[in-house]
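This part of the workshop introduces the protein records we will be handling. The question running through the whole workshop is how a given chain folds. To make this concrete, we reproduce a full record directly below:
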Amino acid sequence: MQRSRSVPGVVFGAAAFLIWGLFPAFFGLLGFAGPAEVVAQRILWTLILVVGVLVVNGRLREMRGIDAKTWRLAAVASTALSLNWGVYVYGVTSGHVVECALGYFINPLVTVAFGVLIFRERLARAQWAALGLGALAVAVLTVDYGRPPIIALALACSFAIYGLVKKVIALDALRGIAAEGLVAAPFALAFVVVLMVSGRSEFGSGAGHTALMVSTGPVTLVPLLLFAVAAQRVPLSTMGLLQYLTPALQMAWGVAVAHEHMPASRWAGFALIWAALAIFTTDALRRARNGRRNPKAGAMTPEPTHTPDA
């Protein structure tokens, strides 16, 4: 990371969102295992890898300085992220890739809605219009699916909660991932042991299955590190635009590769979401530009929170 100073931050950001956008291709290969086992293995191997990175960088001792409040926040973040991972794996392996993509399109709007409901933030007219279009889109898609888009809403809400916690927790990327993994590891390990003892574990059932399980660690950690590097170099508004690369690629995979059914009504729902995001992003860019011109005015208007795909 220190040797990459000459590489533009946008390259790291684009690489992170590109990898996340290709997640349906990878996690589709894990359909042989249940979502819960995949999530448990992902937690354990990501933790092993991030602890190794901390050891190599001589930073493992920094974990001792984490206070009780921060550990509680890490537990909330870990719970939200585990739920997000489980729903995502289920969505991909059950043929709902497009609905998963919808969840990450909706995520910025849910984050803004949480800001209003939880932090009593005041929104501009453009932001209210974006939220209104988002709500209308969910209604249209509910009629289209014959049910609420539960997978999409679960992904959007769980990751919005994760993003809110990451906004206030006093940990850098590496220690944050490690803390979240340490909180979840006992439960993940217990679940893996139960599966192995009962003979229902796919881990160890074959070299290919085992290798895929182990690879969930680097597949999870590498884009997070790329994102962390990009976030230090790239303006928030640029990262906000780059984040739409992930759901766009996932949707393209669902339509072009997985051949999921996309009737006109579903396209209409997505069109409303894209219109809402266009309004939302244009307003965010305008506020960021005004903030640079007038720092005092910019300081009074918080920019939207953009968090990486889990």
